[in-house]
Design goal:
transmembrane helix; DUF2243 domain-containing protein; membrane; mainly alpha; 0% strand; DUF2243_membrane; 4 helices; 73% helix; transmembrane
């Protein structure tokens, strides 16, 4: 059954929302993991390490609030997509990987090296940590692009969707 232009536009909007909600969730998830493990459990660094411990803790709190807002916002978008029967798991996972990977790469290059807000860890040879951090981020980004490519392939050339496209 051929889809109307309105249906195709609606599908495009929902496909984009799936990716963006996954993207926000990926940012929130990786920020939560960073905050929980590297800041709180391992005590390797704070979000901002160029001042007192108190300022570092406040910066951690703001960082945690940011990650929580991104996660909750993403979940509201997911709830709306589910309510509209427009949930696309593969696109959402692609967005999640892209958000997580790009945030980690931004953190590793911009925050660690250019802005020098903090390092991954102090009093150690930092190069192996930087390499692992950034290579892992790139691998997650590549996984996101692979998933996005697979999601796009689920659409037939005529624009009609396969049975599994919305799963």
């Amino acid at each position: 059954m051929a889809r109307t232009i309105k249906q195709k536009n609606k599908h495009g909007v929902y496909s984009t929302r799936n990716v963006w909600s996954g993207f926000l969730f990926g940012i929130g998830l990786v920020a939560f993991i960073d905050e929980t493990f590297f800041h709180q459990l391992l005590h390797w660094h704070h979000f901002y390490d160029k001042s007192t411990t108190g300022i570092g803790l406040v910066s951690d709190g703001l960082f945690h609030a940011f990650s929580w807002i991104a996660t909750v916002g993403a979940l509201f978008m997911v709830a709306d997509l589910r309510r509209r029967n427009a949930w696309e798991t593969t696109r959402w996972l692609a967005g999640m990987c892209l958000g997580a990977g790009l945030f980690n790469l931004y953190d590793g290059i911009i925050q660690h090296k250019l802005m020098k807000l903090h390092q991954i860890r102090y009093n150690v040879e930092i190069l192996p940590y930087d390499i692992v951090w950034n290579v892992l981020a790139i691998m997650i980004i590549i996984a996101g692009f692979i998933l996005l490519h697979r999601a796009r392939r689920k659409s037939l050339p005529s624009g009609e969707m396969t049975e599994n496209a919305l799963q």
